[in-house]
Amino acid sequence: MSLFTKKTEEKKVAAKAPKAAVKAEVKTSEPKELTGIVTSTKMKDTIVVRVNRFVKHGKYERFVKISKKYKAHDAGNTKKEGETVTIIECRPISKDKHFKVA
Fold this sequence. Notes:
Strand content: 35-45%
Distance between the termini: 70 Å
Helix content: 10-25%
CATH architecture: Beta Barrel
Mean pLDDT: 88
Structural class: mainly beta
Strand order of the largest sheet: 1-2-3-5-4
CATH superfamily: Nucleic acid-binding proteins
C-alpha cells in the first residue's frame, strides 16, 4: 500500500466518524457609554456631542487631551447646547449616527 492510499483512507475514515455537536455561543459585549457636552442641536432629532479623553503621549509620556465629536439620536430635541449628556452605542440609525441619548 502506498503512502498516498493510506492518507486517502485515513481521510475517508475521519469523514465517516461522527462529528461532535458544536454549539456556537454568540458573545455580545456591553454597549459603549460616553459622557460629553452637547455642541450642536441644529439638526432634527440629532445632537452633536464632544467627548474628551486623556491619552498618554507615546514619545513625551505626558497626558494629552483629545476630543472627538459624535452624532447622537435625541428624539424631540430635548437637550440644549452646553448640557452634559451620556450617550449609549446602538445600531446604526444613519450614515454617521450610531449613538442615542441615555
